[in-house]
Amino acid sequence: GENVEQHPSTLSVQEGDSAVIKCTYSDSASNYFPWYKQELGKRPQLIIDIRSNVGEKKDQRIAVTLNKTAKHFSLHITETQPEDSAVYFCAARNYGGSQGNLIFGKGTKLSVKP
Amino acid sequence: KAGVTQTPRYLIKTRGQQVTLSCSPISGHRSVSWYQQTPGQGLQFLFEYFSETQRNKGNFPGRFSGRQFSNSRSEMNVSTLELGDSALYLCASSLRSDGETQYFGPGTRLLVL
Q: For tag attachment on chain B, is the N or C end more exposed, with fewer CB atoms within 10 Å?
């Protein structure tokens, strides 16, 4: 089955710097890759997602890149702000597959220091 | 639209008891997935329901079960609770079963003593 590895587990940056979180997946049939942000005590919130027919997607300060050949995808946050501090989860799913549930990485705790 | 809701939000049980958690999806969503979140294991998939049928199941013992009703509301049940079942149980709803964006509820925090 699918396995998703996420690195780093913790990341500390200064306000205004960029943050990059990387994930690798094992199942080449996976074709949907969402990223969730979970603030302390709150529910995971979808912040961006990408499908395998796209190499990059941007939404203001957030971007995700996908390398299907290498089976890895990354989250890029530019101009970080203290409110970006949270745990970020990547996930992979085989869109339309019979066992197409989301498999999550273990999460990255991002701390943005003012 | 109202978001995904879960009840109860907090629950304390003792070992050996059973518990039922409820999830109401976003209006119009027909798929509900359940996840267990713990500090050590992260988010682990329990099962997914679509149109009252279980579509997928994760690697959890048979003590974990679920069902979905005709109005798409879902319940999960854990019997013979163990200390290790203490976790945040999250449900997520999506419009369809085949990979659509999942929206999470606030979760039910279960503590087993």
A: N
Q: Which residues of B touch A93 (CB under 8 A)?
A: 99
Per CB-CB distance under 8 Å, the chain A contacts of B42 are 89, 104-107
Annotate B34-70 with b (16+ C-beta within 10 A) or e (fewer): bbbbeeeebbbbbbbbbeeeebbebebeeebbbebee
State how far the Cα of A60 lies from the Cα of A83, in Å rounded to an integer: 15
pLDDT in tens, chain A (114 residues): 788 999 999 999 999 999 999 999 998 888 899 999 999 989 999 999 998 888 999 999 999 999 999 999 999 999 999 999 999 999 998 766 555 678 999 999 999 999
